[in-house]
């Protein structure tokens, strides 16, 4: 039996884990069995008087093979740890042979609704969006329903600014009011 535990900075993962679409009625299982937030892990460690300094070190898992793709494992980024930036740069290089060094975000509706575009000779080759906060997610869903979504990838986070740390101290204060 496998018991799948997720450690996440945001409480929204707890809500996502219990959604019906993540339940397999045939196998009577969920995609995720338990979600612990970073703060809950911290509190457990405090309660049991466990200090990080006292823990022994263990070798890193090499999920991507020995050595792996260093750019995939370590990259600068925003709220999603740089996922959008990594995929954008990788796609530009592998598909279009363009080496993108720096990504420029274009603000559309507000600072939580931005896009990144790769152009060559006036032609748009790639168009990604970073959409954060519930209001902007509603706008995204509305555009999807109307078939007006020009993006190959959309990074979506419920926390405003794509910054899960705004939710680390408890349930996201923006979830109910947005």
Automatic annotation (TrEMBL):
It comes from the Eukaryota. InterPro entries: Cytosolic_Fe-S_CAF, Fe_hydrogenase, Fe_hydrogenase_lsu_C. Residues 2-162 form the Iron hydrogenase large subunit C-terminal domain. Pfam families: Fe_hyd_lg_C. Belongs to the NARF family. This is Nuclear prelamin A recognition factor. The lineage of its organism: Eukaryota, Metazoa, Chordata, Craniata, Vertebrata.
């Amino acid at each position: 039996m496998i018991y799948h535990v997720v450690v996440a900075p945001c409480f929204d993962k707890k809500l996502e884990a219990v959604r019906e679409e993540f339940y397999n009625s045939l196998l009577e299982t969920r995609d995720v069995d338990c979600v612990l937030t970073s703060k809950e892990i911290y509190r457990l460690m405090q309660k049991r008087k466990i200090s990080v300094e006292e823990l022994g070190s263990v070798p890193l898992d090499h999920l991507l093979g020995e050595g792996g793709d260093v750019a995939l494992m370590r990259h600068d980024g925003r709220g999603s740890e740089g996922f959008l930036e990594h995929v954008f740069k990788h796609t530009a290089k592998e598909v279009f042979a363009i080496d993108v060094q720096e990504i420029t975000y274009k603000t559309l509706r507000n600072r939580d609704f931005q896009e990144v575009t790769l152009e060559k000779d006036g032609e748009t080759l790639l168009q990604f969006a970073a959409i954060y906060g519930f209001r902007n997610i509603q706008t995204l869903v509305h555009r999807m329903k109307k078939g007006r979504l020009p993006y190959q990838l959309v990074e979506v986070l419920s926390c405003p600014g794509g910054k899960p740390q705004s939710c680390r101290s408890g349930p996201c204060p923006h979830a109910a009011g947005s």
